[in-house]
Amino acid sequence: MHRFASFRFAAILAAGVFGFLVTVPFSPAQEPYQILDHWKIGGDGFWDYLTVDSAAHRLYITHGTRVEVIDTTSGKVAGQVTGLKAIHGVALDDAGKFGYISDGGANAVVVFDRSTFASVASIPAGTGPDSIVFEPATQTVWAFNGRSKDATVIDAASRKVVATIALPGKPEFAAVDGQGLVYDNIEDKNEIVRLDAHSKTLTATWPLGCDSPSGLAIDTAGHRLFSVCDGKKMGVTDATTGKSLALPPIGDGPDAANYSPTRKLAFASCGEGVLSVINAADPAYPAIETLPTARGARTMTFDPATDRAYLVTADFGATPAATAEHPHPRPSIVPGSFQIIVVGRK
Asked: Coil, helix or strand for 3?
């Protein structure tokens, strides 16, 4: 989905809900996260997924009809991938050479060169490709198509579609375990699916116990999945059995989830303007921090190499009155106000 375009996000903005700081004590080894910087990027249009390349110190952000490439050492724009229609996600191969963009407006996956940012191929996908991941064990790219409710599997070497897998509903964020398993939240069924990249089949469908799951993160060592849901809940699922492990509280209007394997923390970026931090090392999964970020900062990524999170938002103007044609109007975006919020520890 367009992370700025969802109805529940517009409702949160219209209500003018803002974040607060939960005063939960931290251990000396685990100081709280803070906002370290704001990077002004500018430009207009909606935004969607963020993807970090730790080794190259780059951040990829889908922004309307282009991908913004940010140097994370300076906060400056390093380049753009342009000529796109209505883009959603970016996946990166494990060789550092190519990236893959889900272009929902073109019903295609666009391949680009990560050294020049030039597009080198366009591969037909299903209808409305949204989330996209690179699966390293099979060297395949998986595009999850929101409107056709299926997954397009592409062989990275040949750039050919090798499978189309039907899904039980509308897919949202996806995650891989690095060993050939792919997971995806099914938003309209409150489920999560497991797919086998080797056999290219759907092998399990599990209920989540929370509504409208969007963001998904994985703990590969601990075999756990973290799904952010409506109702201020994060669903924690055993990635092997599908058993629900916990439903810790998070902020309102979440969209993205991430996980720190070093600190064993799960994150949820929420549209009300907070970043929720969950202690996944504790069997009770307590929320240990609710960091105020900014109105609308509901999508993010996390760089485990630097222990930093990156969130995006913009400044907002007035929300138009609802009409029969537009019952859930979105607030206006102040032109040129698109920005990245950098979160970390001092």
From this structure: coil
The DSSP annotation for 221-282 comes to TTTEEEEEEBTTEEEEEETTT--EEE--B--SSEEEEEEETTTTEEEEEETTTEEEEEETTS
Do 311 and 297 meet the contact criterion of CB atoms below 8 Å apart? Answer: yes
Instruction: Let me know: does 169 contact 186? Beta carbons within 8 Å.
Output: yes
**What is the rounded distance in angstroms from the CA atom of residue 267 to the CA atom of residue 6?**
20
* pTM for the structure as a whole: 0.91
Per-residue pLDDT of 253-268, as tens digits, reads 999 999 999 999 999 9
Longest CA span, the chain: 54
Structural domain spans, the chain = 1-51+208-346, 83-207
Please state, in angstroms and as integers, the Cα–Cα distance from residue 118 to each residue in 64, 132, 155, 191, 277, following that order. Answer: 17, 19, 20, 37, 37
| Cβ burial, residue 3 (10 Å; 0-12/13-18/19+) | buried
In angstroms, the CA 293 to CA 144 distance is 29
The two tokens of residue 281 are 């090392």
pLDDT band at 17 (very low <50, low <70, confident <90, very high): very low
Rounded distance, CA 72 to CA 121, Å? 27
Q: 40-75, pLDDT tens digit by residue?
A: 998 877 899 999 999 999 999 999 899 999 999 999
- Which residue type is seen at 22? V
- How far apart (Å, rounded) are the C-alpha atoms in residues 102 and 89? 5
CATH superfamily membership of 83-207: YVTN repeat-like/Quinoprotein amine dehydrogenase (2.130.10.10)
* 188 torsion bin: left (phi>0), alpha (psi -120 to 50), beta (else): alpha
pLDDT band at 91 (very low <50, low <70, confident <90, very high): very high
Query: Which stretches does DSSP call E strand in 84-212?
Result: 87-92, 98-103, 108-113, 119-124, 129-135, 140-145, 150-155, 160-166, 171-176, 181-186, 191-196, 201-207
The secondary structure of residue 318, as a DSSP letter, is P
Angstrom CA distances, 214 to 208, 299, 325, stand at 12, 10, 26
